[in-house]
Please model this.
Amino acid sequence: MTETEFDVVVIGGGAVGMACAYYLRCMDPACRVAVVERDPAYREASTPRASGGVRRLFARPENIALSNFGIPVFENFATLMAVDGEQPDIGFRRGGYLFIVPPAAVETLRRNFERQRAMGANVHFLTPAALGDKFPSMVVDDLGGAVHSPDDGWLDPHATLMALRRKAGALGASLVKGEAVGIEVAGGLVRRVRLADGAALAAGAVVNAAGAWAQRVCDMIGMKTPITPLRRFEHYFECEEPIEALPYLKDVNRLAFRPEGRGYSGGVPTLAEPRGFNLEADLDYFERVVWPALAHRFPQFERTRCKATLPGLYDQNDLDANPIIGPWSGHCENFYMAAGFSGHGLMHAPGTGRAIAELILRGRFETIDLTRLGWARIERGEPYAEEGIL
Ligand SMILES: Cc1cc2nc3c(=O)[nH]c(=O)nc-3n(C[C@H](O)[C@H](O)[C@H](O)COP(=O)(O)OP(=O)(O)OC[C@H]3O[C@@H](n4cnc5c(N)ncnc54)[C@H](O)[C@@H]3O)c2cc1C
Model:
């Protein structure tokens, strides 16, 4: 059996795990970091299957702050993630975000808008008439209002992950191919991560960045979380008739889509989906659920055609659809959670990586206080959920 010693072992090499490694190495080049990833081709991982949306349109200040931190990082990715002078292109497109709501949800939308604005986001409140002027193809009769954030947008998730991975490696993080199958705890602290091939990594701290598989890692130390795998589909579809340039659009019924190439990418995630590691594509879902929602909002989509359906897994936190970030307080202080993102993990990877690095290296949050996203609320069973559009 080979054993290697690390200050931090990160389990899971998706966007979140790689961002943790990146910030740990940036903040302390002496910190010995390993990222354990069982499949460096990322065949089932959520990151490459994501839609790539990045937005400041949230209700909770922590989520707005994570986006305020992360989006400028993505905008500067070419410089920040350059390796040997090679600058990655993550296709960041500042196409804007648009939340549209019926009259009953306008009050919540306006409250969130005020908070986003107070926190520095460039956001605009639109009446249905103003919305109709801006996007003449959109049916607005049944709407009460909208918020447009022109500085938000989308990026290429796979390119983003590859850039993070390459940079974390270049900064000196050890990228270990292997599956974590056990965690040894002694004296109330994690001590060692065991891999399927028999190797063991001694660890000063362990970060659980295993995404939809996070609960399986928690099982290794007897920790029960509400994080479950939730399947959702990303569809690529085209439209026969022209529509004006659209931002990333979302409504209260969870219709979410954006321009992609000659067409559009998006879907309608549902919480009614049974939880589990199901990566089968339901080829009727688009016709049944997504198409009616699209055609209702834009008559041009009456004649749309779905060309591809890609299933992926959310690491869904069934308590409140927000992540668990921070140590397993009161149980195992050097076991850190960075999972449960419920559909926001790519955009919040930089802020989470930074936060985890601060906790481990400095013992406290310095950039964004994420205390309310920590373990305590889970233990108390007190949800800290978003309000309005998810
Ligand atoms: C269809 C879809 C659309 C989405 N759209 C967006 C969006 O627009 N914007 C956004 O911000 N987010 C979006 N998300 C969510 C986003 O994809 C996730 O929140 C984010 O990618 C999570 O990153 P991660 O690194 O935690 O997980 P992952 O990318 O899943 O990485 C976890 C890794 O852990 C590895 N692993 C697991 N267990 C072990 C083990 N025991 N040992 C070793 N390795 C292990 C896995 O192989 C995997 O590679 C979307 C998700 C889906 C499915």
